[in-house]
Amino acid sequence: xxxxxxxxxxxxxxxVTYWLVSPLFITRTVNEEVPMENPDAGENASQxxxxxxxxxxxxSVVSQGTFMGKAGHSAxxxxxxxxxxxKKYVRFESDFKVTNGPDLFVHFxxxxxxSASAQLGALKGNEGSQNYEITSDIDPADFxxxxxxxxxxxxxxxxxxxx
Length: 163
Known about the structure:
This protein is of the alpha+beta class. It has a single domain, classed as Immunoglobulin-like. The protein has helices at about 1-20, 45-55, and strands at about 30, 60-70, 75, 80-85, 85-90, 95-100, 105-110, 115-120, 125-135, 145-150, 155-160. The strands form 2 sheets. The chain has a 9-stranded mixed beta sheet, with no helix packed on it. A two-stranded antiparallel ribbon has the order 3-6.
């Protein structure tokens, strides 16, 4: 019985160790386009027609900043709050890079403190362009930073101060 308990404990320790350490060696690259709404495009719309509509929909940059690493982690690249077709998004541009880790999320923050209640979603990848829709219950004007936050260890990986 002791052997079975030791084997189960060993497997559990290996699983947790893999979950914690493997992100350091895995790069997830994302390449999302700028979000565009196209209400006239049905399922049968041609790709060419969608591209024409995307070029007509204006995208405005509300604010932007550059990522800096925190707590010994590396982070760089551009974060922007953009507005297109009446919706706002946080957009990480193609130059975005952050040290990968377990349980990373995107949050707003203010004056050097991240806001747990202003979560935009799980980090999609540790490199590349990606979009996070800002839900109607979050007012981006209340914040001046975008954070990459590790929930598992309650530590910041990077922050971009918005201007």
